[in-house]
Amino acid sequence: MHATISGVGVFPVGDDPSVAAASFDFTGSVVLITGGGSGIGRAITRAFLDAGATVAISGRRPDRLAEAVEGYPRERTAALPADVSDGRQVVAVVADVIGRFGRLDVVVSNAAGYETGPLTDLTDEAWERLRATNVDAFFHLAKAALPHLASSGGNLVAVSSVSGQRGDWGQAAYNATKAAIDNFVRSLALDWGAQGVRLNAVAPSFTLTELTESMGRDEASLAPFVNRIPLGRPGQPEDVAPVVLFLASEAARYVTGTIVPVDGGTSASTGQPHI
After folding, report:
1. pLDDT by residue (tens digit) across 61-91?
2. Strand bridging mode 77-81 / 106-109
3. The model's pTM
4. Are strands 22-25 and 4-8 parallel, antiparallel or unpaired?
5. From the candidates 72, 114, 174, 254, which is the catalytic residue?
6. What sign does the CA torsion over 71, 72, 78, 84 have?
7. For the chain, N or C: smaller number of CB within 10 Å?
8. Region 139-167: what's the mean pLDDT?
């Protein structure tokens, strides 16, 4: 690994959070990010690029992938359209990265889907789609990438959720898939530690992205979420990205098998409302 931490700044508060909260140097490192074209994945993509990494991103929408890496040096970027729930496509993406750049140092498993509602209303097709995107995709990615990470002394960071650690009303299926990711990370950290590979995850809480825009369209709709957040505001993708960079960096060289909440303090609560 070539990543180092060169300094830490202060996280801004307000409507314009910045990934520049921490300064990392990933020059010479090759990073693969799934779901890198939008939301949290896009913020992570740009954070790694700003830190000097060579970054390949995958996702189902070529236009969003192109937008995510627009303005960065072409020799340090690759937009690789793929459905990461398909194991054959994941193997092809990893092979493409190795073929283009010769190595793989960091993998960020971020691609995810969301389904909500009573379990009895969830169709078999919706469950298959959710499981394939949230769990199968991680399985395929880890299986394809881990041998290359062992060669480079690299690491994998998964984007999980606080919903993988507790229950939520109307989200049983989604929460189950995120819980699976957490235990994948813990168990694989045990299996691959002796080969020098670290595996960790971040667990955001309610974060304003395309997936959540219908729930956070105005102050009134945000109020029930903000009520549970000690820092008094919903998360932004740029709040999550620096923590991913930290976990991928040499600053976290003795950190593996952890699930780090990036939730504004949400998981500190017993669940009682803020009175």
Report:
1. 999 999 999 999 999 999 999 999 999 999 9
2. unpaired
3. 0.87
4. antiparallel
5. 174
6. negative
7. C
8. 94
